[in-house]
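Entry type: protein chain
Record version: 2
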Amino acid sequence: MKLRKLLSAMTAALLVNIATPAMAAQNDGSAEKPLRVILIPADGGTEDGTKKDFQPIFDAISKFYNIKFDIKVGQSYGAVVEAMCNGAADIAWYGPASYLQAHNRGCAELLAVAVKHGESVYYSGIFARKDANINSIADLKGKRIALGDVNSTSSFNVPVAMMLAAGVNPAQDAAVINLAGSHANVLKALAEGLVDAGGASFDSYEKAVNQKAIDPSKIKVVVKSNPIPQPPLAVHPDLDKNLKSKLKFAFSNIANFPGITKDQIRGYGGGKVDGYTAVVSEKQMAETGKMFETVTDQVKADIMQKAGKR
């Protein structure tokens, strides 16, 4: 799509919106008040590395619209939720579970999700060492299990939900629980033999294999989850409507923007994606919550208590 066509489409998109002032102290994207972006610390990446993954996208949007951004990486999944809900961020990148926490508190609404191979989904899994004699979820009883951040969708909530559905209560049935904090740390513990099994996303597993951080000949897939919506980008509900429209248009067309290459369009964990779509459904995201609704606060507390006994 040519730049002129992009501008025409952008103008048409904006005509349907009437500019209204932000109801809260949300920034306006000016040099003095750049839009504050906070990203979840995916895959245990460094702050500089995570920012580097996404900087080209925001730079391209900034060049196209003259919107300024201030990008930061949260210290934890929970910190990203709190940043959005206490007014310290205008845009955030979440996992689905973290997004639902913020949305249910009234401080986040969907902006866009990544598209890869024509889909906007990814998968969680439980992986095990081949020498650990684990062939099913039931075999996890009495084993050492690694999990990620308690607010992570695919390294904690979905793996724990799959265990519970199969009659395995990690807090009661595991020999040891290692709360490793990230997908990368879960897989590292698995590779080093510190645990027998662990929960992580398939994207993170493939990344670890490609980086030779884990030997796939020594690891097996115990179970693969149902499809999960890609970790979403979200905006604060009080952000100006015209800014929201610009951002939705920008992410939907980022692959066609000048100043960015296909290799620079990144998604969850810094992996390459084809682009983004702003055609996202709050209903579908809410349905995702049913995948891990059995992972209650009490379940999390029991697992954290178990992990503290190591």
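Comment: The first strand starts at residue 35 and ends at 39.
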